[in-house]
Automatic annotation (TrEMBL), chain A:
Membrane topology value: Multi-pass membrane protein
Name of the protein described by the UniProt record: Sugar ABC transporter permease
GO BP annotations, alphabetical order: transmembrane transport
Keyword tRNA processing appears in the UniProt entry: no
Higher taxonomy: Bacteria, Bacillati, Actinomycetota, Actinomycetes, Micromonosporales
TrEMBL record, chain B:
PROSITE patterns attached to this UniProt entry: PROKAR_LIPOPROTEIN
Signal peptide: 1-26
Protein name: ABC transporter substrate-binding protein
Taxonomic lineage from the root: Bacteria, Bacillati, Actinomycetota, Actinomycetes, Micromonosporales
InterPro entries the UniProt entry points to: Bact_solute-bd_prot1 (IPR050490), SBP (IPR006059)
Keyword check for Cell membrane: no
Record keywords: Signal
TrEMBL record, chain C:
Top-level taxonomic group: Bacteria
A Pfam family reported for this protein in Swiss-Prot or TrEMBL: BPD_transp_1
InterPro entries for this protein: ABC_transporter_permease, MetI-like, MetI-like_sf
Region described as Disordered: 1-26
Organism: Virgisporangium aliadipatigenens
Compartment(s) where it occurs, according to its Swiss-Prot or TrEMBL record: Cell membrane
Protein family membership: Belongs to the binding-protein-dependent transport system permease family.
Protein name in the entry: Sugar ABC transporter permease
Gene: cebF_2
Keywords carried by this UniProt record: Cell membrane, Membrane, Transmembrane, Transmembrane helix, Transport
One GO-annotated biological process of the protein: transmembrane transport
Domain ABC transmembrane type-1: 96-314
């Protein structure tokens, strides 16, 4: 079978088996996306064809137009809401995390280690534990069915603080901070002018991860945003999927459009996201 | 790093665009007389033309319908939540007969429609339909339709299978449910039946039989003192056994009603008959699509008559435009409104005036091969009696229907499934 | 999880910003600044967490001890009644069984496949980033999108998978109908979405293993497989543990995939037999379709307990399985 046998094959040299295996894996990873495109570019009846259609058709624009015409799914509103929510949460998480991460890494204050440990502890608590009282709280505040219900609780992130702390610890030298202090900079100015610029790579990764997580969030919006007129795009997708005039080409067009922003982000920033995940893992 | 910054700046500016885009979108409920009324429904009410009419006579009003085609199990918890949290409900909400009891304790969440001039409309409704809409002397909902039962069938498939196709002859094929099942067996063993099953599925058939059997005692899952009667009401077990017989005969196409597969099943001609209350004719037409015009027909239901379904319209207090909403609800339930629903989706009027109208009495339905729907449904409508439903009727029904599904899916034997149905129903009712 | 600080990367230490012009020294202000700034900087996290994280947690406990529903309101203190009722509730145990079933069915192949994928990715590859992106891309899709696409692929009548298995003579399967077929379908969705993520995490740890370890093993004549099990896996222990715990927390809270997989009718019940209803779905059913807040809150606490127990069990298990070597930490 093997065409070329190397005398000194080392374990980290990739043979054809590796390439084939990885290619198969990548194809499996990509197939559902491809299938999404195939169905979303065809008529609804195509789904019942035997054999199933394996190539994209030409009806994407028509299906998308139908999608936005569908009053019930409120798809456009869902996209706008998701953009608002994800952007706000991302900016806020990056800001507060870098601020707190800087404080934990570089400032001295009583209780620092214990507070940091507490934050790490919060990362372990499953969100569903608080689902019911959180909902009750939102009803009390009158925030159910309002976007702030899915924004405000997520403005900070324990993971973010921890990640920025780890990065700040090694990316910002103590001498630099001292020098800035000698120059008369306030702590805030040090953060803004010295620390934040140095944290930029990590902040970008944190921002990307936060954006994707928020965009994809399902269960909490599902609980708290009941008004179909004011939901996030993930809920619009579910509405599309469960309304009874079930039009697969329309549902898949919606799925494709809801996925597209993330795919663009992923293609553009893939390298950073990968390194972010890998570094995060080594640090945790 | 510079590239990253630029990309982030780009992301940020997109975000800003998205944010500013919203203000341009504006609010539906604006100041200058522009009002949007939302109507929450399930299934098919056939109100589209009536909406347009109301909009035409009320400039600046736009009416949107939500939930078209939804099933009750999805609709009901949402409505409960809307009412309890005072947010999210439509300006008008539809309440199905099986849910009415459940919402009556919350009558204070609804406008008293008597305050909106509905008092003089009493004569527009069958007595019981009006009375059931009352709670504590307040009018919580106005009746829409009633649900006389029939059996819809695919003429073309019957022909293929060598069965009679004429609706009177077909009606004669099944005076009883046993005869219906026997006909199904004939259909099944025919050399050519177009690859279709005889019945759409256990859930729809069970519900239809249950509504019919329940009529003898006047209730189904709950007795009239609101005690759970799943295992004590013989009507429930009888309906169950008939359904099991149908499944055992291999007649089911195995679809759970109101699922997307069921909807697709209509289009793909996967079954030849479906028990159809009047309102179901609109559902069939919508699901099966124009391509099957003239293929369906309507015969009488085995076992003789019954009432399944029918709804009321209520106006939740939480709405912003209650006065206008009440006006719309009165309009939609007026004889004229009920005629509109009948014409569009076959919902059988609960208004004596509408039932007497020639457009109902003498109606035929072209989609159903010109079946005399007036004769089939409207003639008996006055004699329909409401069934009594208990407080957690829907939750209990879900358990029993699911149990019937497990037999259809070959996960349980009928006996196992019945035991489970009773146990789960008790739990759900607790 | 032990928090470790990585080796610093000194090339990133220099800030872009120009130094600020010296400000007039205001000693007192500086003192206040030094003293309070750290607390101000970290306070947003604690304030928001207190309101929207800690308070609901404590409140869940409170609610779980009461009879409380959305419509009837607070029905008073009932002690542990909710808990004892749940422990006798066959629907709850059914949900626990499903949750564990799906969890095991998903996690074991997922971690193994991730391990092998990481091993492949760790080789000297052309188009390295492309392959890495290729395996990670499922992770960026939303669960809702994944569930919608896979539900269609697993469709009874027109699903691609039934069409494919038709070629090897298998009759179409009604995937959501059977317990194990439903588990399998849901587990497939989970694995598709998460295997690449775990592979990258394991890859990161693999890269930190010094290559000369393998070289000396090669000289000793150890096969590649032997090297993988005796060098790679033990050294990956902390990361494996991290992966398993992430998978546990996610797996035991599984909700969206089975919900959407069950389509439009009664989806929250997880099918006609509750064959794919997870604990999280049951929590939702009780809390938000039956509106039994007290009962739901008690389920939430039991779920938390389960997660802790399983995480601890994982800890022991991973120690055992990948045991032996100590120097796993980088």
């Amino acid at each position: 079978m093997s065409t070329k046998v190397k005398a000194t094959k080392r374990p980290w040299d990739a043979g054809p088996v590796t390439y084939i295996a990885l290619t198969i894996l990548a194809l499996i990873s990509l197939f559902p996306f491809y299938w999404m495109i195939v169905i979303s570019t065809r008529t609804n009846d195509a789904i019942a064809d035997v054999p199933p259609p394996l190539l994209p058709g030409g009806r994407f624009a028509t299906n998308v137009a139908h999608l936005f015409d569908n009053y019930e799914a409120h798809f456009a509103q869902g996209l706008i809401n998701s953009a608002i929510v994800s952007t706000t949460v991302t900016l806020s998480v990056v800001f507060f995390s870098s601020l707190a991460g800087f404080a934990f890494a570089k400032l001295r204050f009583a209780g620092r280690n214990r507070l940091l440990l507490f934050i790490i502890g919060t990362m372990m608590v499953p969100i569903q534990l608080g689902l019911i009282p959180q909902y009750m709280l939102m009803v009390k505040l009158g925030w159910n069915n309002e976007l702030q219900a899915v924004i405000v609780p997520f403005l900070v992130s324990g993971f973010g603080v921890f990640m920025m702390r780890q990065y700040a610890d090694q990316a910002v030298s103590d001498e630099l901070i001292e020098a800035a202090r000698v120059d008369g900079c306030s702590t805030w100015r040090i953060y803004w002018n010295v620390v934040l610029p140095a944290l930029r790579p990590a902040a970008a990764v944190l921002g990307l991860l936060t954006f994707m997580t928020t965009w994809n969030e399902f269960i909490w919006p599902f609980v708290v945003l009941n008004d179909p007129g004011n939901q996030t795009v993930q809920l619009s997708l579910r509405l599309l999927g469960t309304t009874y005039y079930n039009d697969f080409s329309l549902v898949f067009a919606g799925t494709a459009i809801a996925t597209l922003p993330l795919l663009v982000v992923f293609v553009v920033f893939g390298r950073q996201i990968i390194s972010g995940i890998m570094e995060g893992a080594v640090k945790a | 790093m510079g590239a990253t910054t630029r990309r982030l700046a780009a992301v940020a500016s997109v975000a800003v665009l998205a944010l500013t885009g919203i203000s341009a979108c504006g609010d539906d409920e604006g100041g200058d007389g522009n009002v949007t009324l939302t109507v929450d429904v399930f299934g098919q009410f056939g109100y589209d033309e009536l909406y347009r009419k109301f909009e035409a006579s009320h400039p600046g009003v736009t009416i949107k319908e939500r939930g078209t085609g939804a099933n009750l199990s999805d609709y009901s918890p949402k409505l409960t939540q809307y009412l309890a949290t005072n947010a999210g409900a439509g300006d008008i909400v539809a309440i199905e007969e099986g849910l009415l009891v459940q919402y009556k304790p919350q009558a204070d969440k609804f406008e008293n429609l008597l305050d909106h001039g509905a008092g003089d409309k009493k004569a527009n409704f069958l007595d019981w339909k009006w009375d059931l809409g009352m709670a504590d002397g307040k009018l919580m909902g106005l009746g829409t339709d009633v649900g006389g039962l029939a059996m819809c069938y695919r003429q073309d498939l019957f022909q293929k299978a060598g069965l009679p196709t004429n609706r009177d002859e077909v009606s004669k094929l099944w005076p009883t449910w046993d005869a219906y099942i026997a006909t199904g067996e004939r259909f099944k063993s025919a050399p050519d039946n177009g690859g279709a099953s005889f019945v759409d599925g256990a859930t729809n058939l069970f519900e239809a039989i249950l509504k019919q059997n329940g009529a003898s005692v006047g209730y189904t899952f709950y007795d009239k003192s609101n005690k759970l009667a799943v295992d004590s009401n013989p009507a429930v077990k009888q309906s169950w056994d008939t359904t099991m017989k149908m499944i055992n005969a291999g007649l089911s196409a195995n679809y759970q009603s109101w699922t997307d597969q069921w909807v697709a099943g209509f289009k793909q001609s996967k079954f030849a008959t479906i028990a159809c209350p009047a309102w179901m004719t609109g559902v069939i037409q919508g699901n099966a699509g124009d391509g099957l015009t003239g293929k369906w027909d309507i015969a009488t239901v085995p076992g003789g008559g019954g009432n399944w379904g029918g709804s009321w319209l209520g106006v939740p207090k939480q709405g912003k435009n209650k006065k206008l909403a009440a006006e719309l609800a009165i309009f939609l339930t007026s004889p004229e409104g009920q005629l509109g629903g009948w014409k569009a989706k076959g919902t059988l009027p609960s208004s004596p005036q509408a039932l007497d109208d020639p457009s109902v009495k003498d109606a035929t339905n072209a989609y159903f091969s010109g079946a005399p729907t007036g004769k089939i449904f409207a003639a008996g409508a006055r004699n329909l009696k409401p069934l009594h439903y208990g407080p957690k009727n829907l939750a209990v029904q879900d358990q029993v229907l699911n149990a019937s599904r497990t037999v259809e899916q070959k996960q349980r034997t009928p006996d196992q499934a019945w035991t489970q149905a009773v146990a789960d129903a008790k739990k759900a009712a607790a | 999880m032990t928090a470790q600080i990585t080796r610093g990367r000194h090339d990133r230490g220099s800030p872009d910003a120009a130094p600020q012009p010296p400000a007039p020294s205001r000693h007192r202000l500086t003192k206040i600044d030094l003293k309070f700034s750290p607390y101000i900087f970290i306070s947003p996290f604690f304030i928001i967490f207190a309101i929207f994280g800690a308070f609901p947690l404590a409140y869940t406990l409170w609610v779980s001890l009461r009879k409380w529903d959305l419509l009837g309101g607070d029905g008073g203190f009932v002690g542990l009644d909710n808990y004892s009722a749940i422990l006798k509730d066959s629907w709850f145990w059914n949900a626990v069984y499903n949750t564990f079933g799906i969890f095991l069915l998903a996690t074991i192949p997922q971690i193994l496949l991730a391990l092998v994928t990481a091993y492949w990715l760790n080789k000297k590859l052309r188009a390295r980033t492309a392959f890495r992106m290729g395996v990670l891309v499922p992770n960026v899709t939303s669960v809702a999108a994944v569930a919608i696409v896979f539900s269609q692929l697993f469709g009874r009548d027109f699903g691609l998978i039934n069409w494919l298995i038709g070629f090897v003579g298998i009759d179409p399967i009604d995937w959501p109908a059977g317990r194990y077929s439903a588990w399998f379908a849901v587990a497939t969705m989970v694995d598709w979405r998460w295997t690449g993520y775990h592979a990258l995490i394991l890859l990161a740890a693999m890269q930190a293993i010094p290559k000369d370890l393998y070289e000396s093993a090669s000289i000793d004549g150890a096969s590649a497989l032997r090297q993988f099990w005796q060098i790679t896996v033990p050294l990956l222990r902390p990361t494996l543990l991290f992966s398993v715990i992430i998978a546990t927390i996610g797996g035991l809270q599984l909700f969206t995939e089975p919900l959407l997989f069950n389509g439009s009718n009664n989806a929250i019940l997880g099918g006609s037999l509750r064959q794919s209803q997870t604990v999280a779905m049951y929590l939702y059913e009780q809390g938000f379709t039956r509106f039994n807040f007290g009962y739901g809150a008690a389920i939430a606490w039991l779920l938390f307990l389960l997660i802790i127990i399983v995480s601890l069990a994982n800890l022991v298990l991973v120690r055992r399985l990948a045991g032996g070597s100590k120097g796993a930490e980088q």
